[in-house]
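Re-run with default settings, no changes from the original entry. Doing this only to confirm the output is reproducible before filing.
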Amino acid sequence: MTELIAPTGRLHSSWLAARDEWPPGAHQDGTGLRLVADDDLDSPEDFASWVERLRRQSDRSLPVEEGSVHATYWWIVDGETYLGAIDLRHYLNAVLLEGGGHIGYSIRPSARRQGLAKWALGAVLLKAPALGLDRVLLTCDDGNVASARTIESNGGVLEDVRSTGIGVKRRYWIALDDDHSSMAATRAVAGPRPGGRQATSPGLGAGSSRPTR
């Protein structure tokens, strides 16, 4: 059963296996790896410390590092298997407004082409109004056809394509109106289109069923 959960040290081994599927140094959007600092994530202790930093990032009563914003992180999982990550930034700074957006996500290479990104994005869009957001900005590299389709399938309307400090980006806005919420809810319940993977829609709490790109 596919679901969103809060980051947890329980999935350390599965997370490491997913990490090793990526090329060295590859950017994994929505994972919060920038919060790793000098930790060795092979170590259970350092991994647990990083997980705690991810969870604290959503606490608006706590300060964040300069250049960062408050964000909530979720992991996309199937049972005890880590499949990917997605985050929702509570507000935008200048860098995110130009090219980063409100939401980032990444799927481990072995779990792609199953509709997971589309499903996870739809599920997280249902959470955004609870943060006072009435629309969200999504971006992707201009040549990333798969990500563009994921955004467009969730109601993304292209505003522009622009050169930014992090490359040429397609910038989409998604309005969080009643019509969109109904569409997203239907897709969240339906789940991704795997060869048999079933999904559940998470509740509003980050710990129920969890910047930067």
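The two ends are 26 Å apart (CA to CA). Residues 44-56 form the longest helix (13 residues).
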